[in-house]
Amino acid sequence: MLLLPASLAFAGPYSDALGKKLVSSTTRAEKALFVRWIFFAMALHPDLKEMSAISPAQREETNRAVAQMMTRMLTETCAVEAKEAVRYEGASAIEGAFNLLGQIAARELFSNPDVNAGLAELQKYFDSKAIERALSDSPAASDQKK
């Protein structure tokens, strides 16, 4: 049920409550583990596979740790919220709640100064004048495009 396409996820009040409980109940290390698991899965894509040196043992260890974390969350830490979410909104509510956890965990990851610096490097390759002209509402900019 966690592998349903994101488009099937339903974000109702119960899945929202579960998502908030998941976020508030996970430590920074658990959020990092969750993002690592997502990264490991993305690294299996043919366009990314050659850039990653994730060993089968690392993948198995991470899968096991995330499965244990999710199981604990759904059966102990967030059991009441999980049960209500599934009862009133269906199994896809679980996916929606974990999507929220993934978004928050990724946001925390992207707030790291080293990650921000890496993202900022992209700026030096933009043609800011061309972008400014394309996005401008002025008639002069429109004339220059012609």
What is the end-to-end distance? Answer: 51 Å
Q: What's the number of structural domains?
A: 1
**In percent, how much strand structure appears in the residues?**
under 5%
- What is the residue-mean pLDDT, rounded to a whole number? 88
Determine Rg (CA atoms, Å).
20 Å
Give a short account of the largest sheet.
Answer: none
**How do the SSEs run, as a string of H and E?**
HHHHHHHH
Structural class: mainly alpha
Uncertain segments: 1-10
Large-scale geometry: extended
- Percent helix, as a range, is over 70%
By DSSP, the count of extended strands is 0
Count of DSSP-assigned helices: 8
Q: How would you describe this protein?
A:
This protein is mostly helical. It has one domain. The protein has 8 helices and no strands. Helix 1 crosses helix 5 and helix 2 packs across helix 3. The N terminus is likely disordered.
Provide a quick synopsis of the model.
With 146 residues, the chain is mostly helical. It contains eight helices and no strands.
Keywords, please?
8 helices, extended, mainly alpha
Write the layout of secondary structure elements.
Elements: H1 13-25, H2 28-42, H3 56-77, H4 79-89, H5 92-110, H6 113-120, H7 128-135, H8 139-145
Helix pairs in contact: 1-4, 1-5, 2-3, 2-5, 3-4
